[in-house]
Write a structure and sequence with these properties.
This protein is mainly beta and 174 residues long. The protein has a domain of 118 residues: Jelly Rolls, CATH 2.60.120. The chain is 12% helix and 30% strand. The chain is built from two helices and ten strands; from the N terminus they run H-H-E-E-E-E-E-E-E-E-E-E. The strands form two sheets. Strands 1, 3, 4, 8 and 10 form a five-stranded antiparallel sheet that branches. It has a five-stranded antiparallel sheet with strand order 2-9-5-6-7, with no helix packed on it. A hairpin with a 2-residue loop joins strand 5 and strand 6.
Length: 174
């Protein structure tokens, strides 16, 4: 026999049409290859997303922006240290800075409140619990920035342990 054939089997099925019986393995192989190709590069169904990351739609439309500020790993924010950046385009930050993120290599000894300011005026705060390294509580009002406005983070009294601080605030380009 020079051709390999495969006979389909299904529970409780006692009748097959001629077309269903003995399809050549080559046609099954081509279908398997097409299926493998179709799912190649797709994400596993078990992956998760949270709002710290931008979706492809957000990136394609370039409407959602993130502004990241950070101290180098190991550095400790000094008392009343202010880190500022000039925004290159208009951005509106949502109330309570929804979607923003915080990380530190070492959390603060006591609760720490960072003042977040527009051109020197506070519009929001980020509160980090004692020992907190990956989460913060954000509070504030929706605030629009124009291109050229200054976004600043003003730290509280210097903490002996708080180090390697990174902050990302998420807004919508206006």
């Amino acid at each position: 026999m020079t051709t390999n054939y495969h006979t389909p089997y299904q529970d409780e099925v006692t009748h097959f049409s001629a077309a269903e019986m003995n399809p050549p393995l080559a046609s099954l192989d081509s279908q398997i290859t097409a299926n493998v190709s179709a799912i190649s590069g797709k994400a596993a169904t078990s992956h998760t997303h949270d709002d710290r990351y931008f979706t492809e739609t957000e990136l394609a439309g370039a409407t959602t922006v993130g502004v990241s500020i950070g101290y180098q790993s190991g550095d400790k924010p000094a008392a009343a240290a202010e880190i500022s950046c000039i925004l290159p385009s208009g951005v509106t930050f949502p109330a309570n800075l929804t979607g923003s993120a915080y990380f530190a290599n070492t959390g603060p000894t006591a609760e720490a409140v960072v003042s977040i300011r527009k051109n020197g005026t506070q519009f929001a705060t980020m509160t980090v619990a004692a020992g907190g390294t990956t989460s913060a509580t954000w509070a504030g009002t929706e605030t629009a920035f124009a291109a050229g406005d200054r976004l600043s983070f003003v730290f509280p009294a210097q903490d002996a342990t708080w180090a390697g601080v990174s902050i990302m605030v998420k807004g919508v380009r206006s």
